Amino acid sequence: MGEPHNNHEPHKLIAHTNGRSLEEINGSVKVPTGKGFWRTLFAYSGPGALVAVGYMDPGNWSTSITGGQNFQYLLMSVILMSSLVAMLLQYMAAKLGIVTQMDLAQAIRARTSKKLGIVLWILTELAIMATDIAEVIGAAIALYLLFGIPLLYAVLITVFDVLLLLLLTKIGFRKIEALVVCLIFVILFVFIYQIALSNPSWSAVFEGLIPTKDTFSDSPRIGGQTPLTGALGIIGATVMPHNLYLHSAVSQTRKIDHSDENHVAEAVRFSTWDSNIQLTMAFFVNALLLIMGVAVFKSGTVKDPSFFGLYEALSNPETLSNGLLVSVAKSGVLSTLFAVALLASGQNSTITGTLTGQVIMEGFIHMKLPTWLRRLVTRLISVIPVVICVLITSKKGTLEEHEALNNLMNNSQVFLAFALPFSMIPLLMMTNSEAEMGHRFKNNWLVKFFGWISVIALTYLNLTGLPGQMEAFFGDEPSDNELTLAHGIAYTLIIGVLLLLAWTIWDLYKGNKRIIEQSKKKI
User: Fold this and answer.
1) Which run of H or of E encompasses 115?
2) Residues 6+ apart with CB under 8 A from 253
3) 73, 204 in Cβ contact below 8 A?
4) How far apart, in whole angstroms, are the C-alpha atoms of residue 41 and residue 43?
5) CA angle 230, 233, 236 (to 5 degrees)
6) Which among 135, 159, 143, 308 has a CA at the least distance from the CA of 237?
7) How far is residue 134's CA from residue 143's CA, in Å, rounded to a whole number?
8) Is residue 134 within 8 Å of residue 57, measured between CB atoms?
9) Torsion angle of alpha carbons 141, 60, 467, 90, nearest 10°?
10) pLDDT single digits (tens) 146-170
């Protein structure tokens, strides 16, 4: 894999701060040169799957299904637009890793102050933990539904299962990639089967892919949700910051000759193919989830969008849309398959979340722990709030326990809105820069244009959605005082995020200017 680059390499504009990203697997997968398209694509396929699972994790499920229940196919266009934005962002993340040989955390830390690096590390760790909470809850609930394992034990099992699966890195990173791809196909098969039985209106599905003025409307309000809040929920659950850090790291697992610019260009090209193919699969999974909300269930019958409620609804003939579904549901197949897909989704995402924790810790604060300890710490910190939630509510009754877990999962996603701008904007700034990427690999004007539109729109939507997310902490019917408090906290946080973002942009701008001046002096 070669030695880590030092801070004085003249041909590297960004220096490695703590060795190579994911050093134990960096450059560990050989790729052919001069071979056919399909053979080369196969060699590069895998990192895109690790990234794609973040776009179909348990956090996406209830938002898509509820959106379908409340607004039919209106929000299909939101899923499509989110997927296209995801493809653009992940392309830039992979390119950054391949060209600079640094992951996003290393690249940000290399050009910002130590104080800002620590602040951004804490913020990003909170976002990863929020993502991990949803994934651990999803996998634990699946174990409970499938095997009747008490939730507390199920949570602990997911921890050790992840550690066991990650030992596959000792015998080759391709094993991890293959496992993840297999689990993705399990999820895809389950929903294709259920949708095929429901016989949806495909003409309405395709019409829903075209956005209209009603897509982001604040009326009507159905089940406490408007099209706007439904769209924000789907966007918030889809584009998450940890995927950008992960992709910039795992894109470096292929062994590339960085002295050959054409070989680097080929790596960027095939990594983009891999990413787009896998994210297309993620789009189909999310689209199928929304179609499931419309076609599998009778409109308005799913009162409980939690995993427990959806599991029960799939075995209840009164909630299902046609006789064929009812006859299959009576056998328990639909609900069992749903739980299997949930387990696959949660397990997939916890694998990638653990890898991302490693990337963040090493990149931002240069802390290098033994691999097993680093992964164990990352996972256990995320599991603590889930365990506490289960212990507190288990004595109050099953219903309270289920509601508390669902609320914890939903409310934990608030941190994603904080962290997303601090990954997207630096990523776009660095890949736009010729000083960082070189003339050949910097973003062209089209990528810059759509990149800034996507980044500004996502940042705006995430921050404007914060008041609603803060309201959710006070339950379904908050009082006027609680609403005032929620809005006060939300707007204070928004101001804090914007100030911190200004600090980050200023540091990155100064760093880029410094690098340009240094390169001119060398010339």
Assistant:
1) helix 114-147
2) 22, 25, 26, 27, 28, 29, 46, 47, 173
3) yes
4) 5
5) 150
6) 135
7) 14
8) yes
9) 130
10) 999 998 898 888 777 666 666 666 7
